[in-house]
Amino acid sequence: MSEEQTEQPAHDHTNRIGASRAPAILGLDPYCTPYEAWLEIKGEPKNATALAEAAHWGVVNEANVVTHGYEPRTGKQTQRVNRRLRHPEHSYITASLDRRVIPASDKRIVQVKTRDRFVRDQWGTPGTDEVPDKEATQVITEIEVANAVFPDGVDVEDVAVLFGGNTFELYHVHREPDNGKRLIEALAHWWHVHIDGDTPPDAVTVDDCRRRWSYTSGDHRDMTQEDKQLLERFLAAEFLGKKAEADKEAAKLALMKNMQNSEALIVDGKPVITWKTQTQFDQDVFLERYPEVAAKCIKFDSALARKEYAKLYSGCKTLEKRGAFRVNRSAASKLLNN
Among the ranges 40-44, 171-175, 285-289, which has the highest mean pLDDT value? Predict the structure, then answer.
């Protein structure tokens, strides 16, 4: 089935690769890592509320950009596409188009973007196909899916962008069959390895590590020579301050990936690096256990509950997550100076 009528929100990427998530899967989205995209597809969105809010305002602005920008500037008529398109050969690759130009013989679709004026320099000359890699990847995915679904095919996607709320620019991305085929094949390969194979993508940020290894096994593992080298790199970058922040984060990321679910890296039985599990207050559990307290609150105040119902509050610390990544400076100094 190549098309579907669905109530699943466009920002919900469960069980599919939506075109807007194709850049993340290929490592081209600065706001979403491949691992985060994998979690979304598996049904674990990072922040569903924030995603829904962004999607809502995107739809509101979309209509204005089309009605007051794209159509009068181009002289073309458009229509909404109120269905999600699925690639006929890879049904998990989908596209939710903003608009389609009519008549269909024009073979043109439209993508609408609203962007801050401060990112204008990331886009090229209006009237060309010089769009950033993230947007280009989404657009090429949409073109390939739509071309495979629509009987008349698709030759070009216009990208209508409103910068800073007051500057309208238009770009044109033409279909290149060979490039499009390679992109679809890359997405299909990723799906086969990571979804069919149930293998999480590599963690590429500290946040990825915190989500992937969200609890400890309690194990204390002896430090390897590689761990020691990474520790030395971490401490050297920390000493240099902000100018070496990226190197510090890279070393921290590598150490976290080495530790995984271990709680500590040790030398001679003493912890040098710890990454423990901490319990946190679970508001949902509190409200379920003590509805009489919730009934007294117009808006739940966790600080007030902690103060006035200290014992009840403490008993609801059921949420677990990895706490601070800590280096025992004294133990590390002795280790590295030996």
Answer: 171-175
Q: Provide the total of helices (H) and of strands (E) in the chain, helices listed first.
A: 14, 13
Residue 234: closest CA among 248, 218, 250, 214:
248
SS3 316: coil
| β pairing state of 93-95 and 17-18 | parallel
Convert the pLDDT of each residue in 15-30 to its tens digit: 999 999 999 999 999 9
CATH 3.40.50.11540 applies to domain 3-196: no
Structure tokens at 14: 């469960």
The alpha-helical segments, DSSP class H, found in 168-224 are: 177-190, 206-212
How many beta carbons lie within 10 A of that of residue 84, not counting itself? 18
Residue intervals of the chain classified under CATH 3.90.320.10 are 3-196
Omega within 30 of 0 (cis) for the link into 103: yes
Q: What is the pLDDT of residues 45-68, one digit of tens each?
A: 665 555 566 667 667 789 999 999
Strand-pairing partners, residue 279, are 320
Are 191 and 90 in contact by the 8 Å Cβ rule? The answer is yes
Q: How much of the chain exceeds pLDDT 70, in percent?
A: 90
Closest alpha carbon to 269 in 191, 313, 186, 328: 328
Contacts of 260 by beta carbon, 8 Å cutoff, 6+ apart: 213
How far is Cα 145 from Cα 17, in angstroms, rounded to an integer?
11
Are 158 and 201 contacting, i.e. CB atoms less than 8 angstroms apart? no
Strands 99-102 and 77-79: antiparallel
Sign of the dihedral defined by the CA atoms of residues 213, 215, 221, 227, in that order: positive
Q: What is the pLDDT of residues 210-231, one digit of tens each?
A: 999 998 989 999 999 999 999 9
- Please check whether residue 239 is in contact with residue 68, taking contact to mean a CB–CB distance below 8 angstroms: no
DSSP 203: P
Where in 182-318 does DSSP place strands (E)? 220-222, 264-267, 270-280
The answer to whether 86 and 10 are in contact (CB under 8 A) is no
Residue type present at position 111: Q
